[in-house]
Specification:
InterPro entries: DUF2752 (IPR021215). The protein is mainly alpha-helical and 151 residues long. It is 62% helix and 0% strand. It contains six helices and no strands. It is globular, with a radius of gyration of 21 Å.
Length: 151
């Protein structure tokens, strides 16, 4: 392809190398969040099949909805494919959950592929400061959602 205004256009395909050397383990917080997500969907499945759920202590004591109230019903609605009901049960978790789930899923898959020796995908590297900021932003958003949903 001829150069255009001094730029040369080219297409290259990068091949990910096989991992060599030790594979960095997955952070324990990632495993913890993955466990919470899997456990949440397990609870949603139990709720869907039997109607049994875990009552919210804040709602039981005060009558106020916490930021996570309705999350089990939201996940159960997702398991049924009812996005509208899921949105009404807990919109914040419906938005944050998939974002966090994709990041965690990618990290675990990248680790598994490296560990198996098949493919070396780039891993997420967040500084402790970035982790602290993201945690505070997520908790702040949930806190604001928890306050606003009680008006």
């Amino acid at each position: 392809m001829p150069p255009y205004r001094g730029y040369r256009w080219s297409v290259t395909f990068a091949v990910m190398p096989r991992p060599s050397g030790p594979v960095k383990p997955v952070d324990r917080r990632v495993w913890g969040l993955a466990g919470v997500g899997i456990g949440g969907f397990a609870l949603a499945g139990i709720y869907r099949l039997s109607g049994l759920g875990i009552p919210c202590p804040l709602h039981t004591l005060t009558g106020l909805d916490c930021p996570f109230c309705g999350a089990t019903r939201m996940a159960a609605a997702l398991l049924e494919g009812d996005l509208n009901a899921a949105w009404h049960f807990n919109a914040a978790v419906l938005i944050l959950g998939p974002l966090i789930g994709v990041a965690i899923g990618y990290e675990v898959v990248a680790w598994l592929l490296s560990r198996a020796g098949w493919l070396n995908l780039p891993r997420q590297r967040l500084s402790p400061r970035a982790v602290a900021i993201l945690t505070k932003v997520a908790l702040g958003a949930l806190l604001i959602f928890g306050v606003l949903r009680n008006f």
